[in-house]
Design goal:
By secondary structure, this protein is an all-alpha fold. The chain is 77% helix and 0% strand. It is built from nine helices and no strands.
């Protein structure tokens, strides 16, 4: 029975057997991609969902309980969740970048030097100044990848294609840029100067 085979692979993965992950991937990657593409209507994002799904399955395989669901069902529910998370994230990003006070303003101000920002209220100006400063502190390749992802709404795959960089490199640059921004802007959230 197919489900029993999948469940057995999940149990072997929980024991740390990497070959079981490879076998499960070979069996299910195409179907996970199809499901993700059906939800997202974007091949690059569907590929990202495949990667995220199998990474999560590897990390959480010990939580699989064959009494509650078949292995295939558990795997496809994770894939569906990852795809829906991306869809919601895309919608939030589109809503945020469509707002007239964010898209062009933040793009323009992030490229400006803190002293060049217009005086439009002390609190808001301070936040914009910190954002511009934090963005300015990023290495150029990280800043560029982050701007393309968040200000232009490009997927990781589209950024990789535009910059002729490997997809993994693009993802790493964006992740590192976000970590640096969080650290740089962390004091702003805490109310520190």
């Amino acid at each position: 029975m197919h489900e029993d085979k999948d469940g057995a692979l999940l149990r072997r993965m929980a024991d740390g057997e990497e070959a079981a992950l490879g076998t499960l991937y070979d069996l299910w990657a195409e179907r996970v991609h199809t499901l993700a593409f059906w939800i997202l209507k974007d091949a690059d994002e569907a590929e990202d969902v495949v990667e995220e799904t199998f990474w999560q399955v590897w990390r959480t395989s010990g939580q699989y309980d064959g009494r509650r669901s078949a292995g295939a069902t558990w795997l496809l529910m994770i894939a569906r969740s990852r795809a829906l998370d991306r869809l919601r994230s895309r919608k939030r990003r589109a809503d945020w970048t469509a707002a007239p006070s964010t898209a062009s303003e933040l793009r323009d101000q992030a490229g400006a030097m803190p002293g060049e920002l217009p005086d439009i209220g002390l609190e808001r100006s301070e936040g914009q100044s910190r954002l511009a400063s934090a963005m300015g502190d990023l290495p150029p390749e990280q800043r560029s990848a982050l701007e393309m992802a968040y200000f232009e709404g490009l997927s990781h795959g589209e950024i990789a294609q535009r910059t002729s960089q490997p997809l993994g490199t693009v993802k790493t640059r964006i992740r590192l840029a976000m970590q640096k921004l969080r650290r740089g802007l962390g004091s702003l959230r805490k109310g520190e100067p």
